Amino acid sequence: MARIETPKIRNIALVGHEGAGKTTLVEAFLHKVGVLTRMGTIKEGNTASDFDPDEREAGKSFSCSTLSFSYKDVLFNILDVPGSSDCVGDMLTALRAVECAVICVDATSGVKVNTRRIWQETEKLGLPCCFAVTRLDAENTNFAKTLAEIQELFGDRCIPALWPDGSAASFSRVFPVLEPAEGAPEEISSINEKLREAVVEADDALMEKYLEGEEISDDVFRATFTKAMLQRVLFPVLVAAGEPQVGLEETLDFLAAFGPKPNELERKGMAGGEEVVLDPDNGFVGFVYRTVADEFVTRISYLRVLSGRIASNTSFVNRRTGKTERIGSLLKVCGKEQEPIEEGVCGDIVAVAKVEDILAGDTLTDDKTEITLPEIQFPTPMCSLAVQPKSRGDEQKISTALKELVADDRTIAVQADSQTGDLVLSGMSDLHLSLMLKRLKRRRKVEVDTAPPKIPYKETITKSAKYVEYTHKKQTGGAGQFARVFIDLEPLERGGGYEFVDKIFGGVIDQTFRPSVDKGIQQKMAEGVIAGYPVVDVRVTLVDGKTHPVDSKDIAFQIAGREAFKKAFLQCNPVLLEPIVKLEVVVPQANMGDVMGDLNGKRGRILSSNTEGSLAVVQALIPLGEIQNYQAGLKSMTGGEGSYTMEFDHYDIVPPNVHKAIVAEYEKEQEQK
Fold it and tell me: Is the CB of residue 578 less than 8 Å from the CB of residue 455?
């Protein structure tokens, strides 16, 4: 591949709700420019984007694909980003690797719930955006209706830059609004004026000239057009249909002419504790937006060169780990096709293989450029499964395979729950976890049994007890065991943890045995007292006791500490605490009442409810135990049109009826042991 100049690169993320036509559109682009001799289809499972076996089987995208191609004299790096809310991690990283997001909206169904979340993320990043209306060739579509919905949700600065000659069966051609061709519909002239007014408002001096009727050169207007996109005061609306291949050339021409260049969007990082603006001409800084173990379990990492350049057969520093890594060949990627290249210039997107310890979101630099990019806040995965291998002896295999999954996807987490004993795999949804388990089986030939993980309840107290005594005595024929302790127990505020206070005066308990009391108490706290869950938010004060000159020893005071704590705990009105999460549900307006009623029935407390265009947004606080299988219920209520996110908020006291059921279940389990 010939060396490319930075201003000739266009980095575009195709984003939008699941099923919005992104993969079909990029497939049509590849066919249009001659990379593909025949267009693949999602139905046939042979598109350039969806080459992963799981994607081909499901007929949908699960991960971000990178597709690079040349059009005229411009290099396009297009990221085909999956639209499912399960794949939010790929969306978060992909948007940071590009200068422009093209938000696809399917004309057959309009704006969907996940489109709103994508828009919010572009706002947060200050990222230029276009909209692309897709599938306008389908039956019962109407461009004016789709445009009105986009403008209602995202503002009247969403202005067409391409205009169709009709909708459904009458759709066969699009016209550039700025330079209408012969046969263009009449309404284009008024749209042209709106577009020009929006553009000149990005520059005060130009606005003054425009109002005074002065002529503005095409070069100045084009430069200002991109400036308006960079300032997010203009969001051009494009029209392109993949399967009939209508509007493809016009869309590519528009992005080549007006899409922001890599050096036009300011990037910031941290150096020496201070925020700095990246200089494209300075040392190498790269951003990793995706890593994956391919079918041969070779790790491939995709990175955007933000400044400087990187050459093959060199080294870089991973600023997360501090390690220097050696790379061999750099790769230029188009789907699963890879081509070795000598270097990646500023603005380009390249890949490296066989470097293991890289994660999406990592900053890579040369050894002289100590810059770290802002850390991405990935959502906390709250949907979980307890997993264990079906075959004995697969423990090591499952450990290695789960580690790979976590490296591939920053919204996957694995932890051994010391509280419950479960190995817990957490993700964004049931579907997300199902996909991970399929990948586990395909890559590493490991099958697992799954079960819902135990809810991480905690135990605490609501009142105090004073001078609670326990004496441990044991005579075994030889040296015995003796320890006597007196403790006070009191609750701490929520989140207070644990405090141990030694108020022993004199030598009633030898100094060497007092830590043993503390150790015994903490052992019992970890085991739980009433239901087998850890105890939190208590202060224990050791106030008195007695030591035997011969029989007292460490183990005796550990046992005395355990038992005194248990005895005192039961006197202090013990309660269970449950995790409360903050839930945000986005659904079509028609489903708003059903969702709120369902949440109220699950002990949820509605915080807010509002509408955004055709969508309803409901926020609530709700016990985690009530929504372990929420995705299935929401799908049923909304016909698959709802989405939700949740994050841990706080712990709260379990109601008496729930408390009673949990304790009864625990006691039953203990009897069966």
Answer: yes
